[in-house]
Amino acid sequence: MTERKPAHIGFETWVDRQIREAQERGEFDNLPGHGKPIPDLHQPYHELWWVRNYLRREGLSAEALLPTSLQLRSELSRLPDTVRDLPTERAVRTAVHALNRRILEWLRAPSGPHVRIRPVNADDVVAQWRAARWAASRAAPQSPTGRAATAEPRSSRTRWWHRFLRRRP
């Protein structure tokens, strides 16, 4: 802590003297960033620069700053990609249940922009997950000669249970 500014000395003179004395004592030597350029000095000014730097430094997505309704809408659009790599049907249903629970919580007390969101039908997601896994398993096997096994084309008829699962109340 520095002493109080004397009344007879001008403010600028007093501050300059404080800085000069600190330099003479070596208090500004070996500071972190000494000799390095100021980051983003060439960038135009942005009023939320500190938020952008924080997100970049912490490796976070800007999605965390969105209102809940937009976060849920984004999660709904990514749901097929999210469940694609899950190993079991139970894991898929658990992921859908967790998302539906968050959607229902938001529907009870909506905040932010009103976006049309409704719970996801777990049976539809599981059916899509099964179809994607079946297609991947058909494409993956190799014959002993090294060529990929070719799948015979399916008929244009839709199975009865696909039609049943697509129905909505």
TrEMBL record:
Residues 14-84 form the DnaJ homologue subfamily C member 28 conserved domain. It comes from the Bacteria. InterPro entries: DnaJ_homolog_subfam-C_membr-28. Pfam families: DJC28_CD (PF09350). This is DUF1992 domain-containing protein. It comes from Gandjariella thermophila.
